[in-house]
């Protein structure tokens, strides 16, 4: 099922995003992309890569996007956040769909990546904003 999120409306459909939008308008968001999402383009459609167990299916979303000849991008976590020392030495840029949506919607409202990442990336991921490092 495809969920289409607009500013104030959400629709669901059984149709593939590949059938609904031109390929050059689709950006597949995946933490494995080499391309950094620098801004949200209102003329693009952003596909959230999905819930994937990163330890088992590493790079699955990137591979899927490449097979479909889609543009890819990742959230700018490395560019705006720093790794923090934690007991598990765990650092992950893989987020749940709701976290990615929180980041995107906050960025859309504020046009601030630090504010957006703070809203969606929990400290349990091992990343924090530089001003949060003590």
From TrEMBL:
One of its GO terms (molecular function) is tRNA (guanosine(9)-N1)-methyltransferase activity. One of its GO terms (biological process) is tRNA N1-guanine methylation. Residues 1-128 form the SAM-dependent MTase TRM10-type domain. Its EC number is 2.1.1.221. It catalyses: guanosine(9) in tRNA + S-adenosyl-L-methionine = N(1)-methylguanosine(9) in tRNA + S-adenosyl-L-homocysteine + H(+). Keywords: Methyltransferase, S-adenosyl-L-methionine, Transferase. InterPro entries: MT_TRM10-typ (IPR028564), MT_TRM10-typ_sf (IPR038459), tRNA_m1G_MeTrfase_euk (IPR007356). It is an enzyme of class 2 (transferase). One of its GO terms (cellular component) is nucleoplasm. This is tRNA (guanine(9)-N(1))-methyltransferase. It comes from Aptenodytes patagonicus (King penguin). The lineage of its organism: Eukaryota, Metazoa, Chordata, Craniata, Vertebrata.
């Amino acid at each position: 099922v495809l969920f289409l999120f607009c500013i104030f409306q959400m629709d669901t459909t059984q149709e593939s995003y590949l059938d609904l939008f031109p390929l050059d308008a689709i950006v597949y968001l995946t933490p494995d992309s080499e391309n950094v999402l620098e801004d949200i383009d209102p003329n693009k459609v952003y596909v959230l890569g999905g819930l994937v167990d990163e330890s088992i299916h590493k790079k699955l979303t990137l591979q899927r996007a490449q097979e479909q000849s889609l543009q890819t991008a990742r959230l700018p976590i490395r560019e705006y956040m720093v790794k923090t020392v934690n007991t598990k030495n765990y650092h992950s840029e893989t987020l749940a769909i709701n976290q990615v949506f929180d980041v995107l919607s906050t960025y859309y409202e504020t046009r601030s990546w630090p504010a957006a990442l703070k809203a969606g990336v929990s400290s349990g991921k091992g990343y924090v904003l530089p001003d949060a490092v003590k």
